[in-house]
Amino acid sequence: MSSDQTSRPRRLHRVRRALQNIRDSYTISRRTYPWVGWAMLGSAVALVGLAVWVSVLSSQPLWYWLPLAVLLALTVCMVILSLTVRRASYTQLEGTPGAAKAVLDQAGRGWYVESQPVAVSPRTMDLVWRMVGRPGVVLVAEGAVSHTRRMLEEEERKVRRVLSTVPVHVIHVGTGTGQVRLTELSRTLRQLPTKPTRLTDNEISQVSKRLESLASKGMSMPRGVDPSKARIDRRALRGR
After folding, report:
1. CA 207 to chain centroid
2. What are the tens digits of pLDDT across the range 62-84?
3. Structure pTM?
């Protein structure tokens, strides 16, 4: 069997997977933004109309401008979809235990995010996540401020006990007063101060290891709590 024959099914599989991803993204976006389909259609029609108008004014053949308009329309539609799908996903996840982890995992380079919550309330399923980055140690709480305040204070004491010179930042995630919406969490992380202390890559690694040793001593996770229950069902998010 030739290499071309074996690579053809792979290409078809990649195309099908890409189309399925686009379909899933559109489904997620439409749940929160019902107008997204009209926005994509309107932009495509406007660009094609612009191509026809330019063709008539310039006396150039339509076949010259139309392919450019179609390619540009596809690009604009993908941009609209990419801008809406992430915010729509976060909006639909709000209130779900563990939803903040989906945002923290997208924090990008320069951040270390622990895979499990460092504190969990078995009764209310309030969670506290811990991450390390340039600004220092960041504690992210999910749940009502009144419920998570004591959990955050306890975790902050544990961190300061072993890392007295590293800044500790606290973020409350939720929809209430004084809380950060899930859609604004990434921006809030980027806006955390890095002066006068800014951790280097080496310092981030060292701090992360110190905190891992802290967790391994059993100081963070309450008994009887399964962290896997706080994970997000991504298939349910796609409506499956």
Report:
1. 24
2. 888 888 889 999 999 999 998 88
3. 0.69
Say how far apart CA 172 and CA 151 lie, in whole Å. 12
Cβ-in-10-Å burial (0-12, 13-18, 19+) of 117 comes to buried
10: left (phi over 0), alpha (psi -120 to 50) or beta: alpha
> Considering only 83-87, 197-201, 215-219, which range has the smallest mean pLDDT?
215-219
- Encoded tokens for 114: 């622990």
From the list 144, 133, 105, the residue with the least C-alpha distance to 231 is 105
The rounded distance, in Å, linking the Cα atoms of 169 and 91 is: 24
Burial call 82-105: b when 16+ CB within 10 Å, e when fewer: eebbbbbbbebbeebbbbbbbbbe
Per domain, the residue ranges of the chain are 3-93, 99-231
Torsion of CA 70, 74, 80, 84, to 10 degrees: 150
- When pLDDT is averaged across residues 52-65 and rounded to a whole number, the result is 84
Average pLDDT, the chain: 82
Which residues touch 78 (CB under 8 Å, ≥6 apart)? 22
- Grouping H, G, I as helix, E, B as strand and the rest as coil, residue 180 is strand
| Alpha-carbon distance values, 25 to 87, 146, 182, 208, 218 (Å) | 11, 36, 18, 34, 40
